[in-house]
Specification:
Distance between the termini of chain A: 96 Å
Largest sheet of chain A: 5 strands, antiparallel
Largest sheet of chain B: 5 strands, antiparallel
Order of helices and strands of chain B: EEHEEEHHHEEH
Keywords (chain B): Cytoplasmic vesicle, Golgi apparatus, Membrane, Protein transport, Transport
Pfam family, one (chain B): Clat_adaptor_s
Radius of gyration of chain A: 41 Å
Oligomer: heterodimer
Family (chain B): Belongs to the adaptor complexes small subunit family.
Radius of gyration of chain B: 16 Å
Strand content of chain A: 5-15%
Shape of chain B: globular
Membrane topology (chain B): Peripheral membrane protein
Structural class of chain B: alpha+beta
Helix content of chain A: 55-70%
Protein name (chain B): AP complex subunit sigma
Number of strands of chain B: 7
Structural class of chain A: alpha+beta
Mean pLDDT of chain B: 91
Chain lengths: 785, 156
């Protein structure tokens, strides 16, 4: 059999292949040759074959049949064999293969070899891919080598020890004695790996951490020597003495100083020294400064030092090197919570980074900008952020838009500014905003009463430009529905009023209905808006026509709305104005901006009603309070066992849904009082023609033969409902209706209100009865009717 | 800790791959492809840091890379390594290669893959930085090469 080709021959051959298929063919041919060579147990060329195999492995071809061969090479006496054998083991083997355990003995022998390079190879392999069993077996050898005076071996043993500790944490104790004089080494390689070992041990065990705190002075000394010592050609990198070691030591100091006053105290000076003396013209200097800054921020440093650190970061931001700017922004993001004022000083630089071309820098600058926004800088910052929103990548837009909403919510200097800002976001990044921003914005607009005309005008103009961004379109159509009259009457104070006719407005809204760009939700909004305009505009016929067309729409939601609106025109026209009148000011329940609109008040308060007897009345509705107190009394009967509606109440959601398809269960009629011949029943229903009105009917029945006279039924109710008077004589039945409007119930939805009923009646000549009853109702009862 | 060191050329052909954490072979090749894809579309004037691709561990890991002529040197590291420090380390490694091969170029890496591994072994061990002194590294590699030569055996 001819000698197997050399590695470089193989490489040369493979490089001549012009296609992937050709390459594969060559490789397969060579593999076959290698396999037969392995079968022949050829000792001489084994190293060559394995080398070729490793090359093919790198290209992505299977090489597992060489695993055993690597083991044979490791067992050989020749350094060449061992070298390639160990490399092969590290590249091809791992602890998942059982074969690897066969290495243990070889490694053990080689750890005690007479040649340091063989020992080095063994340490390297063990430290790279040693399994826990191997580590357990060989830890003793490693520990021995950790104490040797040979610096080449010592540094490798240190890193090998790190790997052993990672694999078998219980063995950490074993290495403790050997660490005693690691730091007194002169050799930088050993120092470096020793610091790595100490770092690993401190990170893993709090006991070790407190034990090694006493090394702080020694570490400080070493660092000082590195800085102060003159030029040392051996360790110099671009004019700085062993920057890698400096960085390592700084990192270890960070871990040791964190949370510990004494250690932090001991390192204050050296940190200040490094921070001020390090040359920053090259990357190495900046790497050290960066590490110093991180350490200062993490330990309990004095405030002067912290300010120094942040200023260094600020200088980094101005550096031309992108990498430096990147790490600066990352660190500032970490420190902005704790050292807010100091970071504020660099706000303008940070804002400039928004314009950077690099995507990673832009993102960090954006996050940092949001963290820095406050009441003082809101106007300026918002200008920059809006400009950024215009020009940034789509990935950023959603986050940026949410951030802007949040910031505007918190710090808006005026309502007009707030509305302008939100409008700007909707027009530039409308399709990326979150779903809950639409109801939030509507609520904001409703509550800014004086801005209605201005808002609706601006929204109308925006609609004329672009109807593709659904959130904008939805808000706009809602506003036009509400404030269309202001729009056509040209009442705007804030800016030049536009001239627009009713027909033009209706054109736009109808356009939304037919456009392909509109989602079903948007269409719903438009239809409702058109309907609302029927009480604000005079072109009734046109509106009626539109509404009736959609009565046969394929979209079920649209159809339902249209049909109900139609009914409103036909049968209940007298109710139309009341129904479609302006929305009242909505109570703001969410205080934290668009991200937190789910209210939990309802859930917690309605549980009050689930208890049978309340010892005291908690949180009565304010106006009703006085009345109730006058009447006194202590019988408390909870009326409604409410189940909390499953749909979470969002601030504006239900109000927009005029027809309120939220009814869940129906409250059955209940008998509130049944004694002495008087039966009082409550029934609950929605008014039949007008679904926005809830009616609680109190039905008093006289079940005795005689009349009941002097019947007095008073109710103290909150102003939300109207209470008619009733007759004083009950022959047989009396019906009293309490009427509630949906909006009014909504307004108090999470609170409960009471109807306190003193009942007095006389039966015959002698008997008279007085009692007091308190009936609790929750605003949520709207949902249960 | 360094999770992987990859050297590939402008077309994505691997010149040296070293993983310090176990990955199956096909996964290794996929990672090389993904990393090449991420790194090659970077402009020349953006920063040298990237989030790791999803195959290699996602945003917990960073890819720190440097582009020298026709080769990309990519180190995949976790948060325990200093980003700027790794940049310096790559420089040290390349300068060491330069000293060992005398004006190193891509062809040297192609034809002496094993030697490059040996040099790397003296710089990074088990995913951790072992030695950063260029002269030290070169000296040790030289001595070992001499040992190999002195043995009467077949050349690889």
């Amino acid at each position: 059999m001819p000698a197997p080709i050399r590695l470089r021959e193989l490489i040369r051959t493979i490089r001549t292949a012009r296609t992937q298929a050709e390459e594969r063919e060559m490789i397969q041919k060579e593999c076959a040759a290698i396999r037969s060579s392995f079968r022949e147990e050829d000792n001489t060329y084994r190293c060559r074959n394995v080398a070729k195999l490793l090359y093919m492995h790198m290209l992505g071809y299977p090489a597992h049949f060489g695993q055993l061969e690597c083991l044979k090479l490791i067992a050989s006496q020749k350094f060449t064999d061992k070298r390639i054998g160990y490399l092969g083991a590290m590249l091809l083997l791992d602890e998942r293969q059982d074969v690897h355990l066969l290495m243990t003995n070889c490694i053990k022998n080689d750890l005690n070899h007479s040649t340091q390079y063989v020992q080095g190879l063994a340490l390297c392999t063990l430290g790279c891919m040693g399994s826990s069993e191997m580590c357990r077996d060989l830890a003793g050898e490693v520990e021995k080598l950790l104490k040797t005076s040979n610096s080449y071996l010592r540094k490798k043993a240190a890193l090998c020890a790190v790997h052993v500790i990672r694999k078998v944490p219980e063995l950490m104790e074993m290495f403790l004695p050997a660490t005693k004089n690691l730091l007194s080494e002169k050799n930088h390689g050993v120092l470096h790996t020793s610091v790595v070992l100490l770092t690993e041990m401190c990170e893993r065990s709090p006991d070790m951490l407190s034990h090694f705190r006493k090394l702080v002075p020694q570490l400080v000394r070493i660092l000082k020597n590195l800085i102060m010592s003159g030029y040392s050609p051996e360790h110099d990198v671009s004019g700085i003495s062993d920057p890698f070691l400096q960085v390592r030591i700084l990192r270890l100091l960070r871990i040791l100083g964190k949370g510990d006053d004494d250690s932090s105290e001991a390192m204050n000076d050296i940190l200040a020294q490094v921070a001020t003396n390090t040359e920053t013209s090259k990357n190495v200097g900046n790497a050290i400064l960066y590490e110093t800054v991180l350490t200062i921020m993490d330990i309990k440093s004095e405030s002067g030092l912290r300010v120094l650190a942040i200023n260094i970061l600020g200088r980094f931001l101005l550096n031309n090197d992108k990498n430096i700017r990147y790490v600066a922004l990352t660190s500032l993001l970490k420190t902005v919570q704790t050292d807010h004022n100091a970071v504020q000083r660099h706000r303008s630089t940070i804002v400039d980074c928004l314009k950077d071309l690099d995507v990673s820098i832009k993102r960090r600058a954006m996050e940092l900008s949001f963290a820095l926004v406050n009441g003082n800088n809101i106007r300026g910052m918002m200008k920059e952020l809006l400009y950024f929103l215009d020009s940034c990548d789509p990935d950023f837009k959603a986050d940026c838009a949410s951030g802007i909403f949040l910031a505007a919510e918190k710090y808006a200097p005026s309502k007009r500014w707030h509305i302008d800002t939100i409008m700007r976001v909707l027009t530039t990044a409308g399709s990326y905003v979150r779903d809950d921003s639409v109801p939030n914005l509507i609520q904001l607009i409703t509550n800014s009463v004086e801005m209605h005309a201005y808002t609706v005008q601006r929204l109308y103009k925006a609609l004329l430009d672009d109807i593709s961004q659904q959130p904008l379109v939805q808000v706009a159509s809602w506003c036009i529905g509400e404030y269309g009259d202001l729009l056509v009457s040209g009442q705007c104070e804030e800016e030049e009023p536009i001239q627009v006719s009713e027909d033009e407005v209706l054109d736009v809204l109808e356009g939304l209905l037919v456009s392909n760009l509109s989602t079903p939700v948007t269409r719903g909004y438009s239809l409702t808006a058109i309907m609302k305009l029927s009480t604000r505009f005079s072109s009734l016929n046109r509106i009626k026509k539109v509404v009736s067309i959609y009565g046969s729409s394929i979209d079920v939601e649209l159809q339902q709305r249209a049909v109900e609106y139609n009914a409103l025109f036909k049968k209940y026209d007298h109710m139309r104005p009341a129904l479609l009148e302006r929305m009242p000011i909505m109570e703001k329940t969410a205080t934290n901006g668009p991200s937190e609109t789910v209210q939990t008040n309802g859930e917690t308060d309605s549980t009050i009603l689930d208890t049978k007897h309340l010892p005291s009345i908690s949180q009565p509705a304010s106006q009703a309070n006085d009345l109730l107190d006058l009447l006194g009394g202590n019988d408390v009967v909870p009326i409604i066992q409410t189940t909390v509606p499953t749909k979470p109440a969002s601030a504006g959601g239900e109000l927009l849904d005029l027809l309120g398809d939220l009814s869940l269960t129906v409250i059955p009629p209940m008998t509130a009082y049944n004694k002495n011949g008087l039966i009082i029943e409550f029934t609950f229903e929605r008014s039949n023609p007008n679904p926005n009105i809830a009616v609680i009917t109190i039905h008093a029945t006289n079940s005795t033969e005689a009349d009941m006279t002097e019947f007095v039924f008073q109710a103290a109710v909150p102003k939300v409902c109207s209470f008619p008077s009733c007759s004083t004589v009950i022959r047989k039945h009396i019906f009293i209706s309490l009427i509630f409007l949906k909006e009014q119930l909504e307004a108090i939805k999470h609170r409960h209100f009471k109807i306190r009923v003193p009942v007095y009646f006389r039966q015959g000549l002698l008997k008279s009865y007085i009692m007091h009853k308190i009936f609790f109702f929750s605003g949520y009862c709207w949902h249960l009717i | 800790m360094i999770k992987a060191i990859l050297i590939f050329n402008n077309h994505g052909k691997p010149r040296l791959i070293r993983f310090y954490q176990y990955f199956a072979e096909d996964m290794q090749q996929q990672i090389i492809r993904e990393t090449f894809h991420l790194v090659s579309k970077r402009d020349d004037n953006v920063c040298n840091f990237l989030e790791g691709g999803s195959l290699i561990g996602g945003s917990d890991y960073k890819l720190i890379y440097r582009h020298y002529a026709t080769l990309y040197f990519v180190f995949c590291v976790d948060s325990s390594e200093s980003e700027l420090g790794i940049l310096d380390l790559i420089q040290v490694f390349v300068e060491t290669l330069d000293k060992c091969f005398e004006n190193v170029c891509e062809l040297d890496l192609i034809f002496h893959m094993d030697k490059v591994h040996y040099i790397l072994q003296e710089v990074v061990m088990g995913g951790m930085v072992l030695e950063t002194n260029m002269n030290e590294i070169v000296a040790q590699v030289e001595l070992q090469n001499r040992m190999e030569k002195s043995e009467v055996n077949q050349v690889i």
